[in-house]
Design a protein that fits this description.
The structure is a single chain. By secondary structure, the chain is mainly alpha-helical. The chain has three helices and two strands, in the order βααβα. This is Chromo domain-containing protein. Pfam families: Gig2-like.
């Protein structure tokens, strides 16, 4: 897509993509960023020591193209973030909902373990 001028291709595991994802500098960057995560629960079944790969599609953007301007972004989930039966199960945003946003810790990982992140099995859901 887009239909009239394809720029995003459903390619995820080409040799070039695999080499890029396995590059030592990318792994080093991932390890650095993962150090921000921590857990209040010492028994939480989560590891911030083992990088995982997000397999994104291949995108070939034409120089100067302003029509299909998907800028840098983070896929941040969907409506499940705000659903009681979604992220509500882990009480991830409890402090924010209570008005105590200063106490919210975006890097606390154990509260994210019980969440339901794909309640609607949506295509492209994160």
């Amino acid at each position: 897509f887009p239909q009239d001028n394809p720029q995003v291709y459903e390619l995820y595991w080409s040799p070039s993509q695999i080499r890029a994802r396995a590059h030592p500098n990318l792994i080093k960057t991932q390890r650095f960023l993962m150090e921000f995560w921590h857990s209040k629960d010492p028994n939480a079944l989560i590891s911030s020591s083992h990088p995982t790969i997000y397999c994104d599609r291949l995108r070939m953007r034409l120089p100067g193209d302003a029509k299909f301007a998907l800028g840098p972004h983070v896929d941040g989930g969907s409506v499940e973030r705000w659903e009681e039966e979604g992220y509500g199960k882990g009480r991830v945003y409890e402090f924010i909902f209570q008005g105590n946003w200063e106490q919210y810790d975006p890097w606390e990982s154990s509260c994210r373990l019980p969440v339901v992140s794909d309640m609607y099995q949506g295509v492209g859901a994160c």
